[in-house]
Amino acid sequence: MSTVQNFAKLSGRLYKLCSKKEKIRRECIKLGRMECDLLNYLNQSGEAACMNVLADKLQVSYSRITRIVDTLVDKELVIRYPSKKDRRSWLGEITALGKSTIENTIIDFLDLQEDVLNRLPKDKINEIYDMINLYIDAYEQALDSKEKSI
């Protein structure tokens, strides 16, 4: 097998691992990908957002955002209320339970990373990190070039 084929296979394995990790995370908190993305956005922004902003940020329709927010409201992870600035606009805001849910997924992810690191030779961890980082940087640059040419 050529070096190019080996790296293509490695890239595929990394993609599958990341997909599997995300699937497990979503199943643990009983949320779909878009629900997770919306909850993460609200948690990171730290403020309420109107439905139009959420639709733009997640690149989905207004009606899709409404359904996603409905689900999160039902699960008490988000609250929705009318804007004081514009009566026609509604805001979504993450609840304490929503924040706790996101924080727990972060802790679980860090625990998983610790488990992975414990399976690696201690004296090689920094070298492995540097090499993977180098590979990812090159991959990002190649994808950016490809995207610009399309």
The computed structural class is mainly alpha
Which fold name is given in CATH as the topology? Arc Repressor Mutant, subunit A
What gap, in angstroms, lies between the N and C termini?
Answer: 29 Å
Question: Helix share of residues?
Answer: over 70%
Index terms:
single chain, 150 residues, mainly alpha, Arc Repressor Mutant, subunit A, three-stranded antiparallel beta sheet, 6 helices, 3 strands, 73% helix, globular
Give an overview in words.
This protein has 150 residues and is mainly alpha-helical. The chain has a single domain (3-119), classed as Orthogonal Bundle (Arc Repressor Mutant, subunit A). The chain has helices at 3-29, 33-45, 51-58, 62-74, 96-118, 125-149, and strands at 49-50, 78-82, 90-94. Strands 1-3-2 form a three-stranded antiparallel beta sheet. Strand 2 (78-82) and strand 3 (90-94) form a beta hairpin. Helix 2 (33-45) crosses helix 4 and helix 3 (51-58) crosses helix 4 (62-74). The mean pLDDT is 92.
